[in-house]
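Predict the structure of Protein ARV.
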Amino acid sequence: MEAPSPSPARCVHCGGLVPQLYRRYSATVLKMVSCARCGQVADKYIEYDPVLVLLDLVLLNRQAIRHILYNTAFRSHWKLYVVMVLIEGYVTYSATAAAPAAAEPWQSADAERELPPLDAPQLHGERLFYVICIESLLASLAFFAASALGCRVLGVAVPTLRLVKALVLGSFAVFLWVPALIWRQQGDPARRWVDAAFINGYTFLGLLQTVSVLCAAPRARAAVVAALGLGAKAAARSLLRAVDGEDPA
Ligand SMILES: [Zn+2]
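Done. Here is the predicted structure for Protein ARV.
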C-alpha cells in the first residue's frame, strides 16, 4: 500500500527475514528477491496496485496482511484508528439514541413522549456523542491491553507500535458500519442484529488472521487472543455505558 520500508523485510509466504525485497540494476530495471527460506518471491505485492492489495486484505489473505505489516511503513494507522473510534462511538450513540423508541412494553406512550425539562442542557445529544466517543476510546485501549496480554501469553513480545498497527489493520471491518448505518431500514431492529453479527464476525476473523500472522501462532490460539481482545473491549464499553447511565445529569 505504501513504499517498502528500508529496514529488513519479511517474506510474505513464510514470514522469514529477507535483507531486501528487490535489487536495482538500473534506473528502470528491478529484480525481486527470492526468500532463502521457502524459495518463493519474497513479496510479490511490491509490484501490485494498492487496490489489489486492499482486495486481498478484504479476503483476509495472510500474505497481504504480512506485506502491509512488515514491508510497508503503514503510517496511516493512527488516522484509521481515530476514524474507527468515531465510527464505533457513533454506532453506540445511534443505538443509545434509538433506545427510547424501542421502549419496554410496560412503558406508557406518555412516558415516551415526555418533554425534556426547560432547564435541560442544550446540545444534550452532542454531549452524549462526545462522551460515548471517549468511552469508545477507552474501550479500544482495553482492547489493545488485552490483546497485548494475549500475545504475551502466546510467548510473543510484540513491539507496541507494531501491535497497534496490526490490531488497527485487523479491525478494518469496522468500516462496514458506514454503509450499514446508511442503508439500515429505520425501525427494523432485526436488521441491526444482522449487521452487528456480520460485522463483528468479520472483525473477529480479521483479527484472528492478523494475530496469527503477528505472533506466528496457529489459528486456534490466535482466535483466543482475538476473542480476549474483543471481549475486553465489549466489557469495557458496557461498563462505561452503565456507569454513565447512572449519572443523573
Ligand atoms: Zn519465505
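The beta strands are 9-10, 17-18, 22-24, 30-32.
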